[in-house]
């Protein structure tokens, strides 16, 4: 698997940083979901994103989400390496493990640009 291109890494880092620095859990989920979409093809960033989602689920005492994130942590790296991940999926438990979703236009433009 190739390294995350610098433009994607910058966008991913910005979303993860925004998630860490906002005090609003709804906004935090939003940033983590966007980071997830960017990170899916890359094993470590993808796993790191699910670890952050697990942390937020535990903070919110959301058992269902936490359990779903544990499963996703186990599957993230192998799924990235094998290219078996649902494009655009936000990474939340409610989204389903294999459900592709529409990629936001701004992220789609970054994901389709030649690196």
Automatic annotation (TrEMBL):
InterPro entries: DUF3703
Pfam families documented for this protein: DUF3703
Top-level taxonomic group: Bacteria
Name the record gives this protein: DUF3703 domain-containing protein
Protein's organism: Rhodococcus chondri
């Amino acid at each position: 698997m190739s390294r995350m291109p610098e433009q994607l890494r910058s966008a991913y880092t910005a979303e993860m940083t925004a998630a860490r620095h906002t005090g609003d859990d709804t906004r935090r989920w939003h940033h983590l979901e966007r980071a997830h979409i960017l990170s899916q093809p890359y094993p470590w960033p993808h796993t790191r994103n699910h670890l952050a989602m697990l942390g937020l689920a535990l903070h919110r005492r959301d058992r269902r989400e936490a359990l779903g994130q544990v499963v996703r942590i186990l599957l993230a790296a192998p799924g990235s390496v094998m290219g078996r991940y649902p494009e655009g999926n936000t990474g939340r438990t409610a989204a389903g493990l294999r459900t592709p979703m529409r990629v936001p236009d701004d992220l789609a433009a970054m994901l389709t640009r030649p690196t």
